[in-house]
Design brief:
The protein is α+β, with helices and mostly antiparallel strands. It has helices spanning about 5-20, 70-85, 105-115, and strands at about 30-35, 40-45, 50-55, 95. Strands 3-2-1-4 form a 4-stranded mixed beta sheet.
């Protein structure tokens, strides 16, 4: 029987394999969540260089009371979209990293779409 971490790793690899086939040359919006914080990162098409990185810890997220709720995810989604637009990135591929498209992940994606990112 596989553990939940192993199952998530399988989902993550399956998603990234499909994204590589579909999105040749497009930047990838990767999300990561922990029990305390939410992070979003835009990498180049090959995934070797980080173009934009936003998370709830640090200066941008210091106004938040809690970094692991839907409000924090909306803040991160909006902020990552603003920084991406400033760098000239308007179209990305959404990589949910094996997480279910529900709750914080969905809120982050919806906030990024509302702020102008297309995926």
């Amino acid at each position: 029987m596989l553990s939940s971490a192993q199952l998530q790793q399988r989902r993550k690899q399956r998603i990234r394999t499909k994204l590589r086939k579909i999105s040749v040359g497009l930047p990838r919006l990767c999300v990561h969540r922990t029990n305390l914080h939410t992070y979003a990162q835009i990498t180049d098409g090959s995934g070797t260089q980080s173009l934009v990185l936003v998370g709830t810890p640090g200066k941008p997220g210091s106004s938040l009371k809690n970094g692991s709720n839907i409000e924090a995810a909306k803040f991160v989604g909006k902020k990552v979209a603003e920084l991406a637009k400033a760098k000239g990135i308007d179209k990305v591929v959404f990589d949910r990293s094996g997480y279910l498209y529900h709750g914080r992940i969905k809120a982050l994606a919806d906030a990024a779409r509302e702020a102008g990112l297309k995926f």
